[in-house]
Amino acid sequence: MSDALHELDATDLAARLRRHEVSAREVVQAHLDRIEQINPAVNAIVTLDPEGALTAAARADERLVRGAAVPPLHGLPIAFKDTRLTRGMRTTHGSPLFADHVPDVDDLLVDRLQQAGAIRLGKTNVPEFAAGSHTFNTVFGTTRNPYDLTRSAGGSSGGAAAALAAGLQPLADGSDMGGSLRNPASFCNVVGLRPTPGRVPSPPGSDLWDTLSVPGPMGRNVSDAALLLSAMAGPDPRCPLSLETPGAAFRVPLDRDLRGLRIAWAPDLGGYAPADPEVLAVLEPQLRVLEELGCRVDTACPDLAGADETFRTLRAHSFDLALGGLLDSDPQALKPSIVWNIEQGRRLTVADLHTATTTHSRLYLGTLEFFSGYDLLLTPVSQVAPFDAELEYPGEVAGRPTDSYLDWMRSAYLISVLGVPALSVPAGFTPGGLPVGLQFIGPPRADLAVLQAGHAYESATRHGRRRPDLPTA
Predict the structure, then answer these.
(1) Which of the residues 81, 186, 213, 318 is marked catalytic?
(2) Which of 23, 51, 105, 134 has a CA between 20 and 30 Å from the CA of residue 281?
């Protein structure tokens, strides 16, 4: 790998910055230069503040020269997901209704990462209101997959994943309800972690009791994702579900001997999420890698009966609560799939919500029982390889037609319902050169164990080291 600054791992960059081998200004400028060269083709970063980033980098350099202690993300540039409130910088949510919206406060996560030393570059593209796992909107257009510019980069953290893969930033934040960290990581050959709910506090002002939508980290490798998690995680009294473990618990070496680990492989999640043959053709040989690392691999799956209905009910209810007012005031301003999801929510009854919440509880308890016999569950991240970027969603999965923009995301969103950590790790490429990710899933709160297993697999395979060949502007 080259020593070009935009190609270095975040952990390597952070170490070089602390050793005074490179300045924060040099790191930021290198990424600004890369953005100028590559972003026009990829369309991953949609708002950019070069002057502000260089000013913040200069302040970071001055602190280091003074001998002040530096935080873990010192000098590392990051563009935040365009659903995160950023003080003085527009936050559009990918919607024309917010195209000129400039918040006067920072999101909790934005504040945490900047306090940890990260330098704000700008914002990354999202689908409208982060709805769907393909990143396009009428404000900024479509984000392209760096491995094939005709293909989707996934979503809703698609701009974040594409920016990582293209070398536009060394770390990226995201969020995940139905796969929005994991699907784009799989599509762009990077790493995305959906943490245990509460591991990273939700921003005040959101639904503080929601366990479906969680913030989380992305990186080009597992160690980088763990580094970012260490700055994201930790309790906040304004988030009642937040876990007490401090973020520093994830700033540790991830090396672990996997011998004796009991792993379940669920290629179609018990029949609920069949995957395309080209995806399974990449993933099934990876099981041998884990066996060679000393793991015992069986075919098994937790009971997911009712998980699909539960996810869709809770999602539709949340869309009605969050966006229903916008539908009433300006129905033409929302894309049809969002209108459909809100209307689904409005048709729900109290009995529907009761069934969903009680099933949600049953699924969680059943998951705990499943993991009493297994240490990890492995599944496809996505049921399909990156699809045509001109489509809103693929028309079929494993030979079955899709009826909505949710249908192809089951292998990710069925796991969301279980309340567990899930990690997407690069697992290889289709014959056409499209990335495919393997999903490492652990028991609730076993985020570190999942990261360690993903790191061991990644070290053995090095699929994530294959970078895209991109034209420069």
Answers:
(1) 81
(2) 134
Q: What is the pTM of this model?
A: 0.97
Residue-range domain boundaries for the chain: 14-465
Q: Which pLDDT tens digit goes with each residue over 148-166?
A: 999 999 999 999 999 999 9
At 1, the pLDDT band (50, 70, 90 cuts) reads: very low
For residue 208, the model assigns a pLDDT of 84
**Residues 297-350: pLDDT tens digits?**
999 999 999 999 999 999 999 999 999 999 999 999 999 999 999 999 999 999
Report the DSSP beta bridge partners of residue 206: 204
Helix 108-115 / helix 222-232 crossing angle, nearest 10 deg: 110
The identity of residue 385, as a single letter, is A
Per-residue pLDDT tens for 376-414? 999 999 999 999 999 999 999 999 999 999 999 999 999
Sequence-separated contacts (24+) of 332-341 with Cβ below 8 Å: 333/95, 333/96, 333/97, 334/95, 334/128, 334/129, 335/128, 335/131, 335/138, 337/131, 337/132, 337/392, 337/404, 337/405, 338/128, 338/129, 338/131, 340/404, 341/131, 341/315, 341/316
The Cα 76–Cα 116 span in angstroms is 10
Helix (H) or strand (E) holding 27: helix 24-42
For the question of residue 206 being annotated catalytic, the response is no
Out of 156, 175, 186, 213, the active site residue is 156
Query: Which residue is listed with tokens 């016999």?
Result: 373
Look at residue 104 and give its three-state secondary structure: coil
Catalytically annotated residue among 23, 133, 180, 186: 180
Q: Is 404 one of the catalytic residues?
A: no
Active site residue 180: yes
- The architecture (CATH level 2) of 14-465 comes to Alpha-Beta Complex (3.90)
Quote the CA–CA distance of 65 and 86 in Å, as a whole number: 28
